[in-house]
Write a sequence for this structure.
């Protein structure tokens, strides 16, 4: 008696956004070619479509696409928009299908997808950071909205010393939770050998599996 036993209802002229190919959740600043993957979920062949691209709520492109040989039922195609320049900060990209075959799309539920993109700042090398305050060009991604990186007093030889800290002792014991502290982007094009040196203090609680990992990203895409 489950409705899952019934075939889905197909609509005429039903083009849906299957996936956002670009941008991803984190991108470097610079030139970007926005792209989405669409699929024909309807029972009519699709020849044309019109799709809007909004960034931070403002319409930046409305583009008409044509499928040379038609897009048959369940066929997939990748559509690219005009190049644009990404600036530092967080931006929301929203794609929305406006028309299919010069008429209203038959199923609006799959016409829209959005992604929030973080574009890190850049910094000159060499650099040093003592965390006397939280550095403006750095950023934190707290995926679970729980305990995360914070600036805290860390006295040793100097009582006023401060450091970035995560309270693992009170952190909810859930596997695969990640809190990321991003440095700015560093241009190492003219650097023959790069060194990254830092101080760390850590005390592991019995039975816990928390830890620190340092990753080097060459494309600003942690995924």
């Amino acid at each position: 008696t489950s409705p899952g036993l019934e075939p889905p209802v197909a609509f005429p002229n039903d083009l849906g956004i299957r996936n956002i190919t670009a941008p991803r959740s984190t991108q470097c600043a610079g030139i970007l070619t926005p792209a989405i993957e669409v699929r024909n979920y309807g029972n009519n062949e699709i020849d044309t479509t019109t799709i809007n691209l909004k960034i931070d709520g403002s319409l930046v492109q409305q583009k008409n696409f044509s499928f040379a040989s038609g897009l048959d039922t369940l066929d997939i195609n990748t559509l690219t928009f005009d190049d644009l320049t990404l600036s530092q900060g967080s931006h929301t990209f929203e794609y929305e299908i406006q028309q299919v075959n010069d008429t209203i799309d038959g199923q609006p539920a799959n016409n829209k997808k959005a992604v929030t993109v973080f574009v890190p700042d850049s910094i000159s090398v060499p650099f040093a950071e003592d965390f006397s305050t939280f550095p403006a060009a750095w950023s934190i991604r707290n995926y679970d909205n729980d305990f995360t990186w914070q600036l805290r007093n860390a006295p040793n030889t100097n009582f006023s010393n401060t450091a970035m800290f995560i309270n693992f002792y009170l952190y909810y014991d859930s596997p695969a939770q990640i809190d990321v502290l991003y440095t700015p982007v560093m241009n190492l094009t003219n650097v023959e050998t790069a060194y990254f040196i830092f101080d760390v203090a850590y005390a592991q609680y019995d039975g816990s599996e928390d830890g620190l990992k340092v990753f080097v990203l060459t494309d600003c895409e942690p995924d």
Notes: The two ends are 40 Å apart (CA to CA). The first strand starts at residue 15 and ends at 22.
